[in-house]
Amino acid sequence: MSLDLTSERGVAVEAQQQFDWKDLAGLPYSKLDADAFSRVRVILMNGVESEALRFSHLLARASDPGLRRTLALVRRAEQHQQTLVNWLNPADQSPLETTIGYEQVAIEVTAHLAKHEPDPYLAQVYRFGLLEDFDHLYRYAALLDRLEGKDANNLLQGYTDVRPGRPTRDHHRHPDEDLARPYDRRSAHPLSKLNALTLVAGEYQTHDFYMHVGPLYADPIARQLYAEIASVEEQHVTQYESLADPAETWLERWLLHEATEVWNYWSCAQDETDTRLKAIFERFLDYELGHLAAAREAFERLEARDPFLVIPRALPDPIKFEGHRDFVRETLAREEDLRRDGTGFVPSAREPERSRALRSRLNAQGSPSEAVARGWAWRPGTELVAEPAALH
């Protein structure tokens, strides 16, 4: 089943301003009773909405008064949608537990996109970032045990492994190694464009969340760990946003942002098992179709082109929210040793000296990601101490 974007126009933007405060700050999901992928979908959609708002503000600054009004109407609805989605996170879910959820999003969504990406180079970029987020989960799971005495698997529910990936201490590299080769807007598969924007949205909100909560901790290792991984997430944002063709016009990008929101809400609605959350995703799918219709009208008016030269007439298959343990394990075994050299990938022995020098300076007084997991290994049921040599 697909979704035909040529005939679906959703709810008109003017009719979407129907929220009140109780609606926006409604009942959250249950931290322990909800399926882990309900949390994943809520976090993902908060990131997608956040990226839509950020982009809309930038576009408005370069737009005429007529387009600014349309963007303001759409943006008000988007902000309320983000509020309602983000407020689904429960108050008894600590920032560190939410962090575990963020990393599960990064692993499972990236794994799905990497498996289905039609461009081999883009798929390689996604697998590279995946192995870094996989290690972040391991380090934060150790911190969750250290600070709160909790088992990360109570949140992950066995869908995602808790084990070392490419060590976080090795993720720090020269900015020249963060840029990737962009796709060609004229020939790229529509799925490639939606994949890249989805990852920009997810990684951007992860970076911002870590920058917000990291300074709130008193524990010195926690403060340093959030600072270290936030730095890597900034690298990931740079990596994924550089995949977009710089020749895309601003209005092409608005179309792609709205199509990405439609695709993500449609995907969430397909898989969600909680009937209340499913109804929210379906409601916002209709709203996003209305936003896409507004973007199409603006594109036709201002660029006098067919919007379906930019976005697909029918959406690609939805994102499947499921565990990818075997795929991640196989990728880890095959590609852990890869490093970046410019826009390419090389064995660690051939990594440029500029990245080695930068990393050596950052890790000069030790690596917080190594310190937090030293002597720690996750085992089913509880935490156990293992010899560090057994971890790698």
From TrEMBL:
Residues 159-185, 340-366 are annotated as: Disordered. InterPro entries: Ferritin-like_SF (IPR009078). Residues 163-185 have a biased composition (Basic and acidic residues). This is Ferritin-like domain-containing protein. It comes from Anaeromyxobacter paludicola.
